[in-house]
Amino acid sequence: MLRQSHSLPGLIAALLVMLLAISGAILSVDPALEHLHSTATGQLNVGQLAGRVANHFPGVEQIQRTASGTVIVYYNQNGQAGVETVDPLTGEGLAPYAPSAFTRWVKELHRSMFLGSPGHGVSGVGALFMLMLSVSGALLLARRLGGWRNLLRPLRGTFSQRWHAELGRLALLGLLLS
What we know:
Blueprint: H1 2-37, H2 46-56, E1 60-65, E2 71-77, E3 80-86, E4 93-96, H3 101-112, H4 117-145, H5 159-177
Antiparallel strand pairs: 1-2, 2-3, 3-4
C-alpha cells in the first residue's frame, strides 16, 4: 500500500511536480541574482532613507525595499506616476524600475500555470502531491534501510535503485521544507 501511495501520485503528477520544482528553483535564485546587481551597502534607518528620497522625489507615495536590498520608490510627479530604483545612500534615482519579464513569466507559471485563480488550485494540488511523495518516499526509504537511524547508511541494490534512493535522500529535506 505504501509503495502504491508513492508511485501512483508520482506518475500522475510527474509533469506538474517537475514544472513546479524547476520554476520554484529558478525563483529561489532570483533574489541572489538581484543582490548581485544591487547598489545597496551599509545600514540606513527608515527615517534617513525617507528624508533623502523625499528630497529628490517630492510626490513619493511608497518606498519599497526588496529582499535583495534594492530600494524602489513609487511617486507621482505632475500627475504622472513613476517608479524608479533609488540609491539608498543619496536618495537619487538610478533608473526607471522594470521587473524582469522573465521573472514575472516564471512567477506566473509557478503560482497559477497561466490559468488565474483556477491555476492557484492546480499549484496547490501540485504542492500537496510533492508533500505526499516526500512523506511516502521517506517512509519507504526508512523501511528499506531498516529504520530511521540507518537513513544515512550506504545503499545497496542495482544502480537505478541506489540512484533513486540517493536523489530522494538528498531532496527530502528541501521538499519537506518547501
